[in-house]
Structure formats: C-alpha cells, structure tokens
Design goal:
about 850 residues; nine-stranded mixed beta sheet; five-stranded mixed beta sheet; globular
C-alpha cells in the first residue's frame, strides 16, 4: 500500500518540475533518473557500513557521489553543472550494472534553472532505498501519471484488473512468463508477487482453513496479491534464480522498456529480462514459447498500418488480431493466458476476426469475461473483455464459460471513485473453481486449488452472471461470436413471465424506396416516409421527407399503423428503437413490428431499447452492423400479461415525466444579469486577448501531452465542459486553435454559434489545450473575470447581433474577429463581478442538481426494465 509520505514526495517532485518540464513522461524520466542516482549512493553507503567498499561511485566517479550534490559548499550553478555532467556520463561508469547504464543512456537535464534543480534534489534526498514493497508501489504510482497513449490504442491497465487476471491464470514458480506488450511491466510484477504469495508459509497456513472457515471469511480484494506478509519464504535459492530468469517482457518503445526495467528492479527482480522487440513484425523470437502469457496489447493499428511477417496462422493487418494470434501460438502444450481485448475480437464479422475466434474456440479458449465499459476511464470509455486461454482445459471440455462483470469496485465515471459493489472476487472464485474442476495434474496441487473428485460435475451457479455455452453452438453460423449475452436465455422474473420470440406473436415488415428519378413519387407528397436515422427520435411524431400516393403504390414502401415499433436495421444508426405516433411508411432499412392485442406497444419499445446493444451484437456485416428481420423475429423477450405490461409502462411514464421536466430546466436555463446603466461599457478587445498567440509555447517540448477539445465536446448553453481527449503538442500546434486554463471558448461558425456553444476551459492537461479552428478564444485581463466574459458572449443579444454580422456563404458563415473585438459589454468593478458571478454559479448549481435528478430517473427506468428481464 502506498503510504502518504511517499505519495507526497512524488507529487511534490512533479510539482517542482512541472514549470520547466510540463510533459508527464519527461517528468517520470527525470524522477526515475534521480531516484536511481540516489539509490546507488544509498547502496554504496550500506556496503561501507557493513565493512565493504563502494562500487557505484569510486575512482573518477567519486566526485559525482550524492553527498557531493547536497554539499552546502556548492553554489546553485555548481550543483547544476555537476548533476548535469554526471547523469550524462553515468552510462559509461564501469562500476554500475548494465541495467543502470541502460537507464542513464541518453539521459540529460532538460532545464538550466539552479533553483528548480536544488528544490528537486532536496525532495529526492528524502527517499531511502531499502528494497521495501512501498518503494515499488511508489514507482507504480509515479508511472500512473503516464495514464494513456490512446493514439496507439494503449491504455494503462488498472492494477485491480491486472491482479484479477493473474489470480485466475495462477502462474507457478516453474512457469516461463511473458507479456508481449509489457508497457511498465504491471502484469509481470503482479505475476511475481503472486508467486511469492503462493510460496509463503503464511499463505500455506491460510489455505489449510476448513471449508466452513473459508466460507465465513470475506474474499480479499483482487488487488491484495502484493508481497506484503507473503515474502516467498518457501522458495529455495534455485527457485528464486529460475523465477527471475523465467519472467520476460517485450515492448516496442525504448522508453517503456527503460521504465519496465526500473519498475522490476524496484520490486526485487535484479536482472529483469525486458526486450525492445516488435512482436508483430520481427521473427527473432518466434520460436520462444511460454507457460503463461499475460497482456493488454494495443487495440489500434498504427498510422501507416502494420507489415507483419507470414508466420501467423491468421493473416491480418489488425494489431489486436495479430497479438491474440501470437499469444495463442506461443503457449506451451500446457500453456495458459489472460489477455484483454476490444469488442472487435468478440463479435466483428470480417474474416480475420472469425478465423481467429474459430481457432481460439477449438484449441485454446476456456472463458470470456465481459468487463463494463469505463474500466479504462478517464483515458477511454472503450468496452473490453478478457479472454482466458488454457490448452489443456480446452481439450477436456466442449463448452466455453462466459462471465459478465457489472461492477469492478469503482464507479464508471471519469474519476473512477471506489464503490461497495465489486463482482471481481466472486467471479475469480467461480472461474478458478471451474478450472480446478478438471483437476489436471500439477504436482504441487496447483496452488490453492481445492481437491475435487474427477467425476464431480461442475454446474453454473443459479445466481450470478455466468453461462456455459457449447462450442458447437458458438460455431453454428460460422461467426463464433463471443458475446455471452447472445446465448443467454432470459431468466424468468419473480412474476414468472414467459420468454417468447418476437416472431411467435408479432408480424414484422420492412419498407422500400421509390425510384429517386421519378419526381412524381416525391413532389408535393403528403405521406411521411421515414429512414433509419429518424428512428432515433424515440417517439416519432414527424418526418423529414414525404412521398406521394403514386410513390407508395409503385415501391415496396408500406403504410404502417400508429404504435408500430420500429427497429433501424443497418447503417450508422442500426439498433435504434422508435415508436411510431403518426401513420407513416419507411425505407428498406427499417423493420416495423406491427401492433396487436398481445403486447402493449410502449412496453415493446422500452424492452427493445434496453437490449439495443444485444441486437447489434447479433448482427452481421462489417464496419456497420446489419440486423436482419430474421434476427428481430428470433429475438426473445419476456412477455408478461397485458395488465402487467401496462403497469410497467405507467411506472416508466411517471419517471419519464420527471425526466422531461428536469430536461426542460437543464436545456432552457440561461444566465441573466440586470445591467446597471452606471457601469462602464468597454470593448471586448480592451479587456481580453482574443485568439492569443502560440509563441509562448516555443519552449515547450513537442512530446508534451495537452488536452484536445473538438467542437462536439463543447456544450450548448453550459459554462463548463469535460476535457476528454489528449494529444501530443507536436500533433496539434500547427493545425488547431490554442488556449489554456480559464480561457473562454466560443464557436464562431453556423450552426454552432447560434446554438450557444461556448465554455470556459478548465482542468486541461498541463494547463494547455487545442481545439477546433472554428473557436474564438478570449483570455481575460486582470480587470475582468472569465465567467463575466462567458456570460456576455453566450447571451441571446450577442448571438442575435453576431448573426447579423456574419460573413461567408449561406452554409458556412462565421462571426468576424473584428466584430467580436469591438463588441461592447458592461464592466463593473471586480467585487461586483464576483458577487454576480457567485449568484449565477448558485443558479448553475441548481441546474446541475436537475441534471443529477435526470440521471437518477433515467437509471430508475433502466433498473425497472432490467427487473423484467430478470437481471
């Protein structure tokens, strides 16, 4: 567990550096170099105290010893020159191991400010190297600031997810272990700790508890596999040597390799085997095989694509396909793996994905664990799953286990706050029990595996989110779809509602498109004609296009009755559900479920909308899903009696009315200020810098991460917005608009300007942001608050006058900078501004409370429908 003093020191070190070294990655490198420098001197001092000799700082390198840097006799510039020279020469120091020489390779001091360096070294001096567990935890905390490299589809794997996977895969002391894209070595260190734990006398005593004692003892959190009290005291010296030799990692990035080496060294692995290696294009290590592979490989293929060699069983240029293929093919005959994959691996229908899934199901796969979307927040909301591979178990069963995780112990918002609900411990226990039920021989009893008779059948628990599916069923249509929900038969709820396929009690149909070249089919038409995009309205009360009676007669379009439930079958809006409230016809991309006396239309609408994602998973097609009428007809739903359907609809309608009311407040609130005629009127150009220059960034490293705000992320009629994306400075500095914390952003182009897209930039990465070239940026001078500027550039008067002054063509009009610069606003003194801003922020707080109420009742609707499904 990271102690507060160590965390404070790391945070302080970063705070000292941030003014001179804004890039988080560079901060990590500077702190890493300084810590290793300090720790080498600590080890020299310890050796001398025990009667030995210094090995790191001796001979000509004695002048660079840490006490020399901290000597009060040296001035600031002398310390700066001494430290800068030493870190550049350290990679040729013959007295330090190759690992440390690699760490100092190409090291340099990126700033020349003596005061910054003095403060930085002072906080580093508070660290003490003692090989303690907390030192490794401290370095992992430092690495956490790296967060994400989302451009490459790489996201730092949360520690509790790593430990969850390692706990299930259960690496042993004799196993050769690999991570094919190791990043900062999180999986490898977790595996090392797990082996220490399972080879500790304290742990062995714990596992001898009786079954009743175990059932009465709460499961430990999945992130509790650290060495802690488990020191691996049952490992012999040969075991430890072999263990260190058996842990391997590959990464394509030399920076990640360096950080991995340090991280493993600080976790007592003194000779780590981390290689700079391109897993997908190099063949040098193709013939190396492993007992255990653990990985969260990059999800995205790099710009310019991949040029893999031809030794993969599955021919593809998608990195996620190739990584999973590589992992499967490099397992020993008894090998096993845990790998995090994106949803494309689970259900994409391109040939490479299907071929990979078929190979996995037939020879490797034993379980699929569905993780909730948001596990990688705040870096990405991407939906992921875990594939568990075990070549031995796969050959002993004709089924695949599917487990769904709804809660991982943290909420799924940007902050990932700790919550009470955590499905991971129970899921891990269930999956391990399933694996151990096959009782394959491991010699040492396979860790903490409970003893079972070989003929003891294993059954899926009647409660929980587990499902066993026959391999033959997965391959019925050649898709080998790995979405567990696709194969789940809905459970009966407390009311014992029957489960019926839609086609068993409903008639479905689709429409058509009149010939486009026939003007008489469209001109002066009065029949509403809906396309798939319009289904997303929900309750459909209007149409964008109309056709004539002649167009209807001479096409496949059909008139549909009111209360038909519509499903968008393909295209970008596939899976959207609508309820028709006007007589209308549709094109061929829309399926209609016609109303009858066996179901309440609103009930069908709510039920299907709740399962939209499942409909999409069952679809076929490539980049865009295709939901056929057959899929819709075969989709099974719970069908209560009509009176219960009406009760459910009435309850949901009550919630919906509250939602509609709160949405009115949220969407229509506008801040209002009563203007005092005595206030001075000033031009905006007099009180703020409009579109400030990027010149002030000339000394900032191009690798520095900054926030990126596309136009879509700027809210309408809301002061605050959440920066969600990040880029490197070098990627955005030339082509995008620059701003920083507390700058006001305003959309200058139609229709965004009229819609009130404006906001104040806050919480930007390193205080720097870039965004759309269609932003106008206002940087407030000392006599005006950013909030005051925002209120006046987002009000109706400014919008109305701005529209009249727009220039450009009818479709692409913009508000001129000169108009904005000359626009006059009232300017009271600062205390009055602060008073009025505080009042408006109180109003905004009430609006935010309405937002929370809206979210609460939207959740109530979801929960009510979920109960119908027995979830």
């Amino acid at each position: 567990m990271l102690d507060t003093d160590t965390k404070r020191r790391i945070d302080t070190a970063r705070d000292i550096l941030v003014g001179k070294v804004p890039d988080p990655k560079s901060q990590v490198e500077q702190i890493t170099i300084a810590l290793i420098y300090k720790f080498m001197d600590d080890m020299d001092a310890e050796a001398e105290a025990l009667g030995g000799q210094r090995t790191f700082f001796k001979g000509e390198f004695e002048q660079y010893a840490w006490p020399q840097l901290m000597s009060p006799a040296l001035g600031g510039h002398e310390v700066l020159n001494l430290y800068s020279t030493s870190i550049q020469k350290m990679n040729i120091n013959p007295g330090i191991p190759q690992l440390f020489r690699d760490i100092f390779k190409n090291a340099f001091l990126p700033y020349r400010d003596p005061e910054t360096l003095k403060s930085f070294l002072k906080i580093i001096n508070e660290f003490r190297y003692d090989h303690s567990e907390k030192l490794g935890d401290a370095f992992e905390y430092l690495l956490s600031v790296l967060g994400s490299q989302g451009e490459a589809g790489q996201f730092r794997t949360p520690r509790h997810i790593i430990d969850f996977i390692v706990d299930i895969v259960d690496p042993q002391k004799e196993d050769r272990i690999l991570d094919v894209a190791c990043g900062t070595a999180g999986f490898l260190i977790s595996a090392y700790k797990h082996i220490l734990k399972t080879n500790s006398s304290a742990y062995q005593l714990d596992t001898k508890k009786t079954a009743s004692e175990k059932s009465a003892t709460p499961l430990e959190p999945s992130n509790s596999n650290g060495a802690g009290a488990y020191r691996g005291d049952l490992l012999r010296p040969d075991d430890r040597r072999r263990l260190a030799e058996n842990i391997h990692g590959y990464d394509i990035s030399p920076d990640m390799v360096r950080l991995s080496l340090v991280n493993m060294y600080l976790h007592s692995i003194q000779d780590p085997h981390i290689s700079e290696y391109d897993t997908l294009t190099s063949e040098d290590r193709w013939n190396d095989y492993f007992d255990v592979i653990l990985a969260n490989p990059p999800f995205m293929s790099p710009k310019g694509g991949i040029r893999p060699h031809n030794r993969f069983s599955v021919q593809s240029k998608r990195s996620e396909v190739l990584f999973v293929d590589y992992i499967a093919e490099h397992l020993m005959p008894h090998g096993r793996a845990g790998v995090i994959v994106p949803e494309g691996i689970i259900f994409q229908s391109q040939n490479a994905y299907k071929q990979l899934r078929e190979m996995l199901v037939k020879d490797y796969l034993i379980a699929v664990i569905s993780l909730p979307a948001g596990v990688f927040n705040p870096y990405s909301g991407v939906k992921t799953s875990i594939l568990l591979l075990d070549k031995r178990v796969n050959k002993k069963t004709d089924k695949i286990l599917f487990v769904k995780i709804d809660n991982d112990g943290f909420d799924l918002g940007a902050q990932r706050r700790l919550i009470a609900k955590n499905d991971l411990p129970a899921a891990a226990a269930l999956i391990k029990d399933y694996i151990h039920s096959f009782q394959y021989d491991r010699g040492d009893g396979h860790g903490d595996a409970p003893l079972r008779r070989r003929d003891a059948p294993w059954r899926v628990p009647t409660t929980g989110n587990a499902l066993l599916v026959e391999k033959s069923r997965l391959g019925e249509n050649g898709e080998f779809n790995l979405s567990g929900e696709r194969y789940r038969v809905a459970k009966s709820s407390q009311n014992q509602f029957p489960i019926k396929k839609i086609g068993e009690f409903c008639e479905t149909t689709s429409g058509g498109t009149p010939t486009k070249s026939k003007s008489e089919y469209y001109q002066n038409g009065n029949i509403p004609w809906l396309r798939s995009g319009e289904v997303a309205q929900g309750l459909i009360t209007q149409a964008d296009l109309f056709i004539t009676e002649l167009g209807l007669k001479n096409s496949s379009a059909k008139m549909l009755p009111i209360n038909s439930v519509l499903v968008a079958m393909y295209g970008a809006t596939a899976g959207q559900i609508g309820l028709l409230k006007i007589p209308a016809c549709t094109n061929q991309a829309v399926c209609a479920i016609k109303p009858n006396n066996k179901f309440v239309p609103e009930y069908m609408f709510f039920i299907l909308r709740h399962k939209k994602d499942e409909l999409i998973r069952q679809s076929v097609g490539g980049a865009q899903p295709n939901i056929s009428q057959t899929i819709i007809k075969n989709f099974a739903i719970p069908l209560p009696p009509l009176d219960i359907q009406r009760e459910i609809v009435a309850e949901i309608d009550g919630y919906q009315r509250i939602i509609d009311g709160t949405r009115q407040v949220v969407e229509n609130y506008k801040p209002r200020i009563t203007i005092d005629p005595e206030w001075e009127m000033v031009e905006l150009g007099e009180v703020c810098d409009i579109n400030p220059s990027k010149a002030e960034l000339s000394n900032v490293c191009g690798e520095t991460e900054v926030s990126f705000i596309p136009m879509s992320d700027l809210n309408e009629n809301q002061m605050h917005f959440e920066p969600m994306q990040k880029r490197k400075l070098s990627e955005v500095i030339k082509g995008y608009t620059y701003f920083k914390d507390n700058d006001v952003l305003l959309a200058k182009i139609t229709p965004c300007f009229e819609n009130g897209k404006a906001g104040i930039a806050t919480n930007l990465i390193n205080g720097i942001g870039f965004g759309s070239t269609e932003f106008i940026v206002f940087r407030a001078y000392a006599n005006i608050l950013p909030q005051w500027i925002y209120f006046f550039v987002s009000d109706d008067k400014f919008c109305e006058i701005g529209k009249r002054n727009m220039t450009g063509s009818a479709g692409q009009q913009r508000v001129p900078k000169q108009f904005v610069k000359k626009y006059q606003i009232p300017l009271p003194d600062m205390p009055m501004q602060e008073q009025l801003v505080a009042q408006l922020e109180r109003e905004q707080a009430l609006v935010n409370a309405n937002k929370e109420l809206l979210e609460l009742y939207e959740t109530k609707i979801k929960e009510r429908i979920a109960r119908v499904w027995g979830e």
